[in-house]
Amino acid sequence: KKEYDTAVAAMKGKEYKASHILVDTEDKAKAVIEELKKGGKFADLAKTKSSDGSAANGGDLGWFAPRMMVPPFAQAAAKLDKGKYTEQPVQTQFGWHVILLEDTRDATPPSLDELKPQIAQMLQSKVVNDYLEKLKSGAKIEVKEIQVSEVKPVPVAAPAADAKAGKPEEKK
Question: pTM of this prediction?
């Protein structure tokens, strides 16, 4: 329960549903923003202008927690109002983004029963690792180099050249 409470505390906050258009230059991103201001449809522009895999889905990234995205992207999405897009391009290591915030919701962490198997496995691994570390810290380990003599190949008998080899003998 204690581990669950710790994990759930890290999951609290908001989740965002957003789409984006990713391009390789700031000028291209600014041109996309201008097209949006003139009434361009975000999904259509994403399909034709975006350079990432979400382009086929109109730039849709689905729901995500801020920790799942690179900080500049997550921060920009968190500042937007629902239905609005970034009016300045957002730079990340992937390129230049124009982000549309579609919706927000409170993050709902999984229940204790859903996480119980993973938490139990994690705690068991921790106990084993702690025990191994205790054993290692109390052990005296010496590494010695061993010289290995050259190993000579063992000759293997060649298969019989007889045409009947491998066939059962016929009884007469």
Answer: 0.60
